[in-house]
Amino acid sequence: MTTWTDGKRRCFWANPKNERYIRYHDEEWGVPVHTDRKLFEMLLLETFQAGLSWECVLNKREAFRNAFDGFDPVKIAAYEEAKLEALRQDPGIIRNRLKIRAAVTNARIFLELAGKWGSFDRYLWHFT
Question: pLDDT of 113-124, one tens digit each?
Answer without folding.
Answer: 999 999 999 999
